[in-house]
Amino acid sequence: MEENRHQQQRREGEQEQRDRRPDGLGELRVLPDELICAILDLLAPRDLGRLACVSRLPFFQQNLVTEVSESCEKTFKFDGFNSLFLYRRWYRCFTTLDAFYKDDGYLERKNISLTSFVLLTDLANTWPARKTWTVDQFVEKYGETAFRISQRSSKKTTMKFKDYVSYMSCQHDEDPLYIFDDKFGESAPSLLEDYSVPTLFKEDFFDVLDEEQRPPFRWLIIGPERSGASWHVDPALTSAWNTLLVGRKGKIIIWWALYPPGRVPVGVTVHVNEEDGDVDIETPSSLQWWLDIYPFLAEKDKPIECTQLPGETIFVPSGWWHCVLNLETTIAVTQNFVNASNFQFVCLDFCPGHLHKGVTRAGWLAVQDRVVKSVKQDVADTNDSDYVNGSLKKTMPEHLENFNGFSEMNFSYDIDFLSKFLSEEVDHYNCTWGEGNCIGQREFREWLHRLWVVKPQIRPLVWKGASLALKADRWLACIMEICASNNLPSPLDDEKLPVGTGSNPVYLVSDYVIKLYVEGGLASSLYSLGTELEFYSILHRVESPLVKHVPDVISSGILAHEPNGSYRICTWAGRGVPDQVRSLNLVNDNCRNDDFPFGIWGKMEFESSKESAVSLPKMWPFLITKRCRGDIFANVRDKLSLDDNLDLASFLGDQLHNLHLLPLPTIAGHSKDNEDDAPRRALNGLNKDSEIFERHFVNDDVVQRNIFSPEWKPFIAAVEQRKKDLHSRLVQWGDPIPNVLIDKVEEYIPHDTSLLISVFKEEDGVYRVCSSPSWIHSDVMDDNIHMEHSPLTHCTNQAVSDGDSTSVDSGINVNIEGNKERWYPAHIIDFSSLFIGDPICDLIPIHIDVFRTDSCLFKRFLESYRFPIGRKPSDGTMSQTKFERASYRAMCYCILHEDNVLGTIFSLRKDLRRATSWEEVEMALWGELNNAWEANNHPIG
C-alpha cells in the first residue's frame, strides 16, 4: 500500500511538472505568448467562445477564466504552465505604487530653472480649482457629465463621471483608462472659470483662430493609480504646461520622466511615413515602461526625472519626450501653446516631407539605414562621430552631403540645423498634407495670414515661419517678377504673404489678384489655367449674365525659373501650346490641334490617366484678375442677417442657373454639333432595345453605357473610380459617420454608378437620357463667394447686377437699419476646379458648406434656380424607382465624394447620427429636391 501511494505521488508530480502548453495550444504552440495575446485581443466574443470549446489555456493567458471559476464557485486548477510574459501582465494589473517612490513627505520644494524645463510651485495658489477640483465635488457637480476617455484606439469613448469613479474603484486593468478630454470646456463650461492661464504662458499665437478652427489645446486629466501618459512628443512641437490640482498635501502624486529632443527613449520605436511625413510611435504603457525597462537602464541612459506635488506646474518645452505615471488618483489641467520661442519649430513640423519630422523626434536615428533602425540599443552605444562618418554618410540626402561641418556636428535642436533636412524639391502647396497634423491645410494657411494681419509686430518671425512651411520667400520672388513684367506695383509689406486657404498661392497686390498655379505639378497646373481661360472665353462669347459676377481677367502666362537663377515670362491666353512646354509632351494627341488644347476635355482626360509624375522644369502658370471689393463670405458669414442669407441663396440660384446653361466645348475627336445652338439640347429617345434597357435598369441595376453621349464618359468614369474601396474609405474616415450606415453603404449605392445620370422613364414607357452634361464649378464654398457692403436699405438682385464689379473695397462700412450692416453677393471666384458632369454635384458644397444644411436657404436657392434638377416620376408618386429621386442622386454623390463630405454632414447635423438608413439621411438633407419639378417641368441633366 505504501509503495502504491509513493508511485501515485510520483505520477502526480510528473504530471504537475509536465509542460501542458503544447497540448493546450496544439498547432498554436509555435507562436510566442505575446503574439497569441495580440490575436485574442482581435477576436469577437463568439469566436472566443468557440476557442474555449477547444482549449482553456488561451483564456488563462488573458485572465478570462477568473469569472468562469467564480461563477462555478470552485477553483479551477491548471498546473504545468508558466509564462514570464503573462506574469508581468498580471503584476501590472494588481501591483500598488505606495512604495514605488520613497518620500518622507517633507521634501524641500523650490522652483528649478533649467535650460530644458521648469518646475513652478506657486502659480495655482489662487485658483478656485485648488479647493474645488476633488473627486467628491466632481461627482456632486458633474456626475452626469460625460467626459472623453483616453485609450489606445482611434475610436473616441465617453463616460459619465459617476460611472468613471465606479470604474476607478474596482478596476484592475493592465493599462487603466483615464479621462483625457479636450472638449471639457464645452461639456462643463464652469470648469474654465476655476483656473486661469499662468502669465508666463499667456502668449499663444493660435488664439487668432476661431475656437472651431484651432487644434485641440487644453485637456482635463483625471486618472487612477497606475495610469499615465506613455512616451510622446507633444503635437506639432508645441510647448505645454501641466498643473496638478488634487492629492494629499506634501505627497508626491506624479512621477515624470523626460528626454531632450532627438533622443528616443529605450523601448520606443519611431516610424516616419515617407510619403506624407506622419510620425507613428510604438511605445509601452507608462507603467510597463517604469516596471520592465526603467530598472535595467544604464545610468547614462536614464531620463531626467521630476516629481510633482499638488499645486505644482511643470513646463515641457517644444520637442521634449516625456512620460507620466500617476502614483495615486490625480486631477490635472494642461494646455499646449505656440509663442515666439517655438513658433518656427511648429511651422517646421507642418512642412511637407518626412525626413525633417523624423529628425526632430528621433535625431540621428531618423537618417540611419533601415536595418540599423531596428537595433536602437546598439546605436545608443555607438560613438556619434564614428557613426556619422560611417553609414550615415551613405544615406545622407543629396542636398545635405555638402553641408559644411555636418560630419563634425552632433544633433542640435536648432531651427537652422533642423531645416537642413527639409526636401528642396517639395513645397507646401504641392504635397499631401499629413493626416497626423493637428490642423488642416486651410486652417494653417489662414492662421499664418491672420498672424500677419493681426500681429504686425511679429511679422519678421511670421515671415521666417511662412518661408519654412509655405516657401513664402520663393513665391514672393515670383510675384515680384510678374508685377514687374506687367507694369504692376510691387507688393507692399501688407501684401507679401499669400491670402486665402486654397491649394495655390494667391496674392492681393494693389487693385489686382495674382494667382500662381502650382497644385499637382506643372502639367496639372497648365490644365487648370487652360480650362479656366477656355471657360472665360465661352462666357464672353455667349454673353452669359454670369460674366458680370466673374472677376475680369487682366493677364495670364507662364513664369519659368531659369538654371542661372533668373526668371522668364511668356504670356499665354490658353489657346495653342506655349513654346515653353511644347517639347514636354504634356498635351494628349487628340487635343493638340484644339483651340484650347489644355481646356476642359484635355484636363479630364489628363486627370483620368493617373500617369506617374515626371521631373519637369520649374514653371508656374499664373493669372491676374481685377480685385473685387468687399470680402469673402467665409469672413463675413457671422455678420449676415437672414435677409442677407436669403439674398445670397437667390444669387447663387441665379448664377448656377447661368453656369449650367453654358454650352460645352466640342469634345476632342468629335465634330462640332450645333455648338452655338440652345445650350440644353432635346432629350434623345431610346426606343431601340427599350425592353432590354428596362430589364437592365430595373432588375439588374446596370445601364447600357452606349446610351450616353461621349461627353458623359469622363464623368461616369470618375464617379465609378470613387466607388472603389468605398466601404474601406468610410471606415478609415470613421467618426462621426455612424457605423450602422457604413455597413449599409454598398447596398445603398448602385452597382452601376451611371444610373445616377438623369435617366428617366417617360409616360410612354420609353427611357430617355440627357444628351449632354453641364459645366460644374464643383467648389462654390464659403471662400469662393465674394460679398460687398450694401449702401441700400433693401438689397435686391438688381442692385447686384448694377454693381461695379471692378472697384476696390474703400474700407468704409455702411451701417443701416439701426447700425446693422447689410451685405450682398457680387462675385463667384476661382474656377480652377471646373469639371463637366452632373450639375447636381454643384449643390453639395452650396448646401453643406455655404448653407450648412439650412433647408430654408436651400429652398430659396431652388426657387431661384428656376428649373428642377430632378424629374417628376411617371406615375406622379414620390418615386417609381429610387433612381428617379433627385435626392437619391445627391446623397450618392455625397457618399462618393473624394473629400470627407459625410464627416461634415454628420458634424453639422448631429441628429442624423441616430439615423438607421441612408434613405433617412437622404430625405432629411435632400428631400426638397424632389419637389423641384413643381416650379418647372423642363428637366436638366
TrEMBL record:
It comes from the Eukaryota. Transmembrane segments: none annotated. GO terms for cellular component: cytoplasm; nucleus. Its main location: nucleus. Residues 186-354 form the JmjC domain. It is found in: Nucleus. InterPro entries: Cupin_8 (IPR041667), F-box-like_dom_sf (IPR036047), JmjC_dom (IPR003347), JMJD6_ArgDemeth/LysHydrox (IPR050910). Keywords: Iron, Metal-binding, Nucleus, Oxidoreductase. PROSITE patterns: JMJC (PS51184). The keyword Nucleus applies. GO terms for molecular function: metal ion binding; oxidoreductase activity. Residues 1-24 are annotated as: Disordered. Belongs to the JARID1 histone demethylase family. This is JmjC domain-containing protein.
